[in-house]
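hey so i finally got around to running both of the ones u sent me last week. sorry it took forever, my laptop kept dying halfway thru and i had to restart like 3 times lol. anyway pasting them below in the order u listed, first the sequence line then the C-alpha cell line for each. didnt double check formatting much so if smth looks off just lmk and ill redo it

first one:
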Amino acid sequence: MTLRISRPAALTSLALAMAASYAHAEPTAGTVLVTATRHPQAPADVISDSVTISPEQIAESGAGSIVDLLQRQRGIEIARNGGAGTNATVFIRGANSNQNIVLVDGVRIGSSTTGAANWSAIPLTAVDHIEIIYGPLSSLYGADAIGGVIQIFTKKGKGAPALTAFAGYGTDNTREADASISGATGGEHSISYAISAGKEKSDGFSATRPAIGKAYNADKDGYDHESAAAQFGLRLAEGHEVGALLMHSKLESQYDNGAAAFDVRSNAKLENAAIYSKNQILPIWQSLVQYSQTKDEGATYSSPLASGYSQINTKQTDFTWQNDVQVGADVLQLLYSHRKEEVETNGFKLDNPQRTTNSFAASYNARRGDNLFTASARRDKSMYGAKTTGSIGYGYNFTQALRATASYGTSFRAPTYNELYYPSYGNPRNKPELGKNAEIGLRYDSGATALSASYYRNRLTDLLVSTNPCPFGSVGYTNGCVYNVNHALLEGLTLSASQQLGRFNFAANVDLQDPKDETSGKRLQRRAKKHGNLLADYSAGAWKAGVELQLSGDRYDDAANNNRLGGYGLVNLYATYHFNRDWSALVRWNNINDKQYDLARNYATPMSKLFAGIRYGYK
C-alpha cells in the first residue's frame, strides 16, 4: 500500500487539526493520519513512514483476519502456530510483537505476561480502517514502541442511519457473518452511534505436522470466534463531546498437544472499554480526557497427562489527559498518562501482581513553507525505573510530489511479567531493552505514480532473549531462562511503488533487512532478510479482479540458527462484483498453487483455500 500525498495549504492543515482530534477524529481514512503524532495531520505533513489500510481495501481484500491483512503490507512479517485462530506473531521492521504497540481506537491492548497483542482475537468485522506507523514512537506512546505502532479504528457513526451485512463460506467449512448499524442524529445535541457484531467458525486443519513428535495429533484444529463492538458519542455543545467505546471478542480454538482422546483447546477473551470527554476549552486549546480498561484473558484445556488446565488474566487500566495547543499554525501537545497492569494466574503466585507507570510527554509539530519539523520527549516511571525517550524529525518538500525526510528517536521495551517472574524462567533483575533508531526517507507521488524508499538503522541494547537450556547453568531454571544480551541491530531498506495505467493498478513493496543478535552474530528468530509483495488489479464497471504475490526468503526457527525455514512464494487471486449501489459479491482464492511452506517449524500452514461472500451496504 502506498499513501497518496497531497500538499494542502497551512490553513487547511490547521482546520483539519482543529476540527477533529485523536482516535475519535471524524475524517475518514486517507484524509488525515492520527497515530503518527497523536493528533490529526494531513498526510503531506507527516514525517514518519506510514501506511493506511482503507475501509474499501479491507472490504475488497476478502481477508479472513487482521493478520492476513497485515501480511500484505510493507515492513511486516508474520509467524503462526497453525491456521487461523492459533497464536500469531507480527514483526514490524524486524521488531518482535512485544516490541510494537497495538491500539484500538486509542486504547492500548495486549497481554502483560507476553507483552504482545492476541492478534487472532481481534475481530476484523469491527474494523473501519488501520494505520501503521513505522519506527520508534516511545516518546509518544511509552514502553514497547520500538518497531512501530499499529492502530485499529472501529466503525464510527455519522450521517443518516446505515445498515451493512456480510455472509461468506469457504474451504474447511469456514463460515462468517457480520452486521453493523451506524448513524448520527442532527441538531445541537447530536448523538452518533455505531454497533457491529460478527461470528466466524471453521473446522480448520491440523495445527501441527507429524515431524513435531509427541505433540502431533492428526485431527482438525478449528476455531469459533464471536465479537461485538460499539461507539457512542454525545455532542454537549459546540466543541464539547463525551462518548464511550466498547469491544468484546471471544475466541475458542483447538490446538495439538498429543492428546487424541481429549479436546485440547484454548479460550481467549479480549475486552476493552473507554469513556472520554473531548473539549474545546479555548479556541487554541483542545483537551481530551480518557479512561480505559482492557482485559486479556486466556485459558488452555489439555489432557491431565500433559499441561492440564491453565488460566492467565491480565488487566490494564489507563487514564490519559492530552492537551493540544495551537501556536500559530503549529501544534504543542502536552500529555499525562497513568497506567496500571494487573496479572492473575492459577499456576503460580506472583510476588508483584501489579505495576503502575506514570508518564509525562510533550511534542511540537511545525511547518514552515516546504520545511516540516517535529520533536517529542517523554518520561516514564515504573517499577523498572525511570526512562526518558525522545525523537526529532525533519522533512523537506523539493516539489509538490517529491519529499525527503530524516529522523532520530530513542525507545525502550519494559520486561514482561513472564520475563520477570515466571517460575524457573524469569529473572526480576532483567532490565528494559533500549533502542536508538536513525532513518532517512524519500517519497514521490504524482497521483498516478507513487514511489518511496526508507532506510533505517535501529540499534538495541540489553536485548532480552530466551534459551533452553540456560547458558549460565540449569540450577533453578528448569524452563530455560530469559536474560539481557549486549546488542542487537535492526537494519533495513524498504522500497515501495505503485502505478495506475488506465483501469490497471500495479503495486509492489520489498524489504531488504538484517535483523540480528550482534552478541552471537545470529539472525533473529523467524525473520527473513528479504520479503515483499506484488499486486496487480483491473477494474471494469462493476468488476474488479486482482492477483497478489507474497514472497519471503528463508528464516530460522531458533536463536542458534540451527533450524532453517525455507523461503516461499504464494499466489492469491480475488475478485469483486457490484450488483448495484448496495449489493456486492467477492471471491478469494489463496495459495492457488497449493504451496506447502513454513511460518514456524513443524506447524502447518493453509494450503489452497477458496472463500466467497456477499455484502449488503458496501459503497
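and the second one:
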Amino acid sequence: MKKNKTANVMAGIYMLVFVALFLVLAGRFMYIQATGEVNGVSLDDWAEEQRTASYEMNAERGQIMDKNGMVLAYDRPAYRMYAILDEAYSENSPEPLHVSNTEETAEKLASILEEDQSEIKQTLDEAVQSGQFQVEFGQIGRQLTQQEKDEIEESGIPGIYFDEEPKRYYPNGMFASHIIGFAREQEEETEDGIEHSITGVTGMENVMNGVLGGTDGSISYQRDRYNQKLLDPDEVVQEPEDGDSVYLTIDQKIQTLLEDLMTQVDEQYSPEKMNAIIMNPKTGEIIAMSTRPSYNPNSPDSVENWYNDPISSPFEPGSTFKIFTWAAALEEGVYNGDDTFESGTYQPNERIEEIRDHNQGEGWGEISYDEGFMRSSNVAASKLLWEDIGADKYYEYLQAFGFEEPTGIDLPDESTGQIQYNWPSEKLRTAFGQGSTVTPIQQMKAASAIVNEGKMVKPYVVDKIVDSTTGSVLEEAESEHTGQPISPETAEEMKDLLATVVNDEDGTGAPYKLDDYVVGGKTGTAQMPNPDGGGYLTGKDNHVFSFLGMAPMDDPELMVYVSIQQPELEDTESGSAPLAYIFNNVVENSLHYLEVEPDEQESNQVQEVEFPEVVDASTESAQADLEDKGIEPIIIGEGDTVVSSNVEPGQNIFPSEKVLLLTDEPTMPDITGWSQREVMRFADMLDLQTERFGNGYVTSQSIEVGKPIQEGDYLGFELEDPSSESSDTSSDDNDEDDSDDEETSEDDAEENEEE
C-alpha cells in the first residue's frame, strides 16, 4: 500500500510537469502563430530572406578620354571564380555539377592560373570540412581574364563557375600615367556581405572618382535551395546609374609621341628623372605631360615614383628663371638692351659672395644686356636685380608671376616650391634661378604671360564631363586668366629676346632651332644640391638641364618645358643633346599635326610629296618613279626587285629625307655622315646586330661598302659630333647650355667650359 501511494504521488507530479510543459509549449506555439515572431524576429521576414537572393549590380565606371574622344581608361569584363561543393547540387544530373575531387581540381586550376596548387586545395578542403555549399578563392580567383575563364571551362573541371565583374583597363599602358592615375577594386564588408567596387587611387581616377564612379544597382529574386530562380521569382531590379565620362585636354597622338621620345632618351641616357609638359599657352590646356620614372597603370605594383614631378616636385630651375628677371626689368622701364656691362664676375660689396658667369667667371668682356640674355649671363641677371629693378620690387614681380602660390591645376598633390629671399646672396642667386625652388608647371603658367599680352592663364587638364547615357555635356572648362604681371609691350619684347636665344649665333639655344618654325626659349643648367651637406655636387652630369620654349614665335601655339636630371652624357655631349632630341621632334611634328602653317623662312619652301608603293616593283622603275618626285633614293644592293623600304606607301615626306630601298640582293651601303637614327632604321630593315661608338654622325663602319649582307649580321659604327673639334677653341661662342655653377672646382673647369 505504501509503494502504491508513493507511485501515485510520483505519477501525479509527472502528470503536473507534463501538463505544465504542454501548456508552455502550446502557449509558445500559439504566441508564435499569433504574432509571427521568434525572439523579436519576424518569421515571414526570415523566410523571405532565406528564399530571396540579392545581388549588387555594379555601375559601369565612366571612361576617361583624350580631347578627341580616344579612350584612355575604361571598364572591361573580368571574372570571379567560385566552386560549388554540395553533392546535392548534382542530383538528377548525369555529370557531376559540384567539385567531386579537390586534389584533381586544385591541380588543373593551378596549372591554368599558374598558382600554388596546395593553396587552392586547402581552400577547397576547408570549405568541404565545414559543410559550405560553395566557396570563393580570394585573390587567386579574382579579376580573371576572358582567356583564363575559357581555358578553365574547356578543361571540363566540374563545379567551377564564374560571375562577371568589371576591371579597369588602360589601353595605352605607360601613357600619361601620372595624370590618368589608376583605379583598383576595393572590398567593403556590409550587412549583406562583401561588396566589390572600383575606386580611383591616384591621378584623375582619384580626383574625379565621384564623377566616374556612378551609382550601383541591385537585383533580388526568389530562389530554391540550389540558388536557382523559382518559376514566379518576384524579381525586383534597381538599375545602376553608370558613371559619367571625363574628357581630358590631353591629345593622344601628341602624348604618344612624347612618351616614345622620353622612353628613347631614358634608355640611352639613364637619367635620374625627366619631365616634360606641352601646353597651349593661349588657353592653359595641357596637351601632353610625362615624367620618368613612370609606370603602367595596368600593373601598378612596383611603382618607383608616385609623384607627378612636373607639378609635385619643386627644384632649383636654373637659367630658365632669367625669363622673369628680364621681364621684370622691362616692365619697370629700367632696361635698355643696348646698355653694356662687364661680364665675368660681379660682387656688389665685400660681404656678398661673388657671382660668376657660367664659363668659370671668364665672361665675354663688355657686352650688351641683350647679348647677356642670349649668352645666359648670371652677372647680367644679378646686376639687373641689384642695381636696376631693386630687390624688393623684384620680389613683388615674383609674387605677381605666382611663384609663391599653386597654379590651381586640376591635378592632385600640387606643390609650390619656396623662394629663398632673406640674404643678399640669396636675392642675387634667385635672379638666375639658384637657391629658390619652383615647379615646372609654375614656370609654364608664368611664361604664358609672354604669349597672352601679359596675362597668365591657369593650366588645366579636364576639358569636359559628359553624361555617358545621353552624351550631353554636363560641365565644360573655360580658359581662365589669373593675373597680369607684365604689359603687352613687355610681352612682345620678351618674345623677341627669347627668339634670339635660339636663332642668334651667340645664343645658348642653338640646338633647339627648327627647320619649319621659328622657336624662342631659354635654356637652363642648374646644379644639384649636395644631399650629404651644404653646397652643390660637382661634375658635368650632376645638373638638371632644362629648356622652356615656344613656337612659332609670331603667334605661339605650343609652349614646351623639358628637363633631365643627371643624364649619363658622353664626353662630347652637352646637356642639351637629350633635351633637343625630345623638344625638336615633338614640337616640329606636333605643329604639323595641328596643321600650323610653317614659317616662311625661305621663299622656296619645299613641299611634301606622297610616297608611292615600291615594294615588289623593279628596282629600276621604283628609282625612276621616286626621282620624278624629286626624291633621290639610296639603293641597298644590286637586286632587280625592291623588297622593303623605310617609308610606308601613302606617307607624306620631304624630298630631302633619306629614303632606303632594300633589294633582293642587299649589299652594304656607305653610311658615312648618317645619323644614328638613320643607321638604326637601316639596321631594322635587315635585323642587323648593331653596336654604336660615340655620338653624332657616322665616321666609320665595320662592314665594307659593297659587301653582301644578310639578316643577323653584325654592324659596328663610330659616330662623332662635328662640333667637338672646335669646342676646345671656340670657348662659349656657340654655347649649347648655360650652367649656373658658382662653386665648381678647378678640376671641373674643363668639363664646364662647354656649358
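quick thing i noticed on the 2nd:
Residues 2-35 form the longest helix (34 residues).
anyway thats it, ttyl
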